[in-house]
Design brief:
Elements lengths: L8 H16 L2 H31 L7 H7 L1 H22 L2 H4 L2 H32 L1 E3 L13 E5 L2 E4 L11 E3 L5 E3 L1 H37 L4 H29 L2 H30 L1
Parallel strand pairs: 2-5
Antiparallel strand pairs: 1-4, 2-3, 4-5
Helix pairs in contact: 1-9, 2-4, 2-9, 3-6, 4-6, 4-9, 6-7, 7-8, 7-9, 8-9
Length: about 290
């Protein structure tokens, strides 16, 4: 059977343009988009509650700015991302190029830079949490007399409870060397390590996505002729990054971590919207 000729790039671009224009002019789509943004704002609150409970179970106190980022890394990360997302929405969909080339555009870029620094610090918080979980030692039976309700039991990543079982009479247990009075079952600790590693990889991938988007936005504003070339060059990079992010969401789903899974799905949709905005903006710039 003979192979059919593939559609020409111009036809594909025209089709994409129609889809994007339809979405952007579709009032229900706009409502869905802003509903997703509100859902992300609600996730900031849910992560804050989750991390407050975790800190309380560990009897963790805030002693420095670094400890704030380590204890509340997910909340800070999500809040900074939400601000970054809203400014990307303003820049790629709401404000005109003329406005963006003035003081308003410089202010937006300054806020985005501050958010990106905050996100990088939060990414360090994910790495610090992963590093903290990696060091453990087998529970020495001689220390069983020390274990009481002031100790914490690791159930899952960021989920702890006061020790209420006699671990010395139940199988093998380990002590977390980098934590104060925390004990865990080896299999649960390994699961927490995998989740912490996924958090770190996911955070790093999102930072790279923003860096690539920043290149695209700057190209659209600065050099009309270079826009198509830059868009073609970075497409494989973005595809790989979004695949990593999608894989992380799937992993959270299989691990039963619904909040992280739900949050990842919302962010993928939100940045799909931003990508559509950038594509439409790029096409308008080239054709103008």
């Amino acid at each position: 059977m003979g192979a059919r000729a593939p559609p020409s790039p111009s036809l594909i671009q025209d089709a994409c343009s129609i889809v994007i224009a339809t979405q952007q002019n579709n009032v229900p789509f706009q409502w869905v988009k802003y509903a997703v943004y509100l859902a992300l704002l609600n996730n900031v609150y849910l992560f804050l509650v989750e991390e407050l409970e975790s800190a309380a179970a560990l009897n963790t106190s805030i002693t420095s700015v670094a400890s704030v980022f380590q204890i509340f890394s997910t909340t800070i990360d999500t809040a900074a991302w939400l601000v970054l997302l809203l400014f990307f929405e303003l820049e790629t969909s709401v404000l005109s190029d003329q406005v963006l080339r003035g003081i308003t555009g410089r202010f937006i870029r300054l806020i985005r830079f501050v958010c990106l620094i905050t996100i990088c610090i939060a990414c360090w918080g994910y790495f610090a949490e992963l590093y903290g979980l990696l060091a453990s030692e087998a529970l020495d039976p001689a220390r069983c007399g020390e274990l009481d309700s002031s100790w914490s039991l690791l159930n899952k990543l960021d989920e702890y409870e006061s020790l209420s079982v006699d671990v010395c009479a139940q199988g093998e247990w380990v002590l977390l060397s980098n934590y104060d009075r925390v004990v865990a079952a080896p299999e649960l600790l390994q699961g927490a390590i995998w989740l912490a590693a996924t958090d770190f990889i996911n955070a790093a991938a999102w930072i790279l996505v923003v860096a690539v988007l920043e290149v695209e936005v700057r190209a659209v504003l600065a050099a009309k002729r270079a826009v198509p070339l830059i868009g073609t060059a970075i497409y494989p990079i973005k595809s790989l990054l979004y695949f990593v992010l999608f894989a992380a969401a799937v992993y959270w789903g299989f691990e039963g971590d619904f909040l992280d899974f739900w949050d990842a799905v919302l962010w993928l949709f939100a940045f799909f919207v931003i990508e559509q905005n950038v594509t439409s903006w790029r096409q308008e710039t080239v054709s103008s």
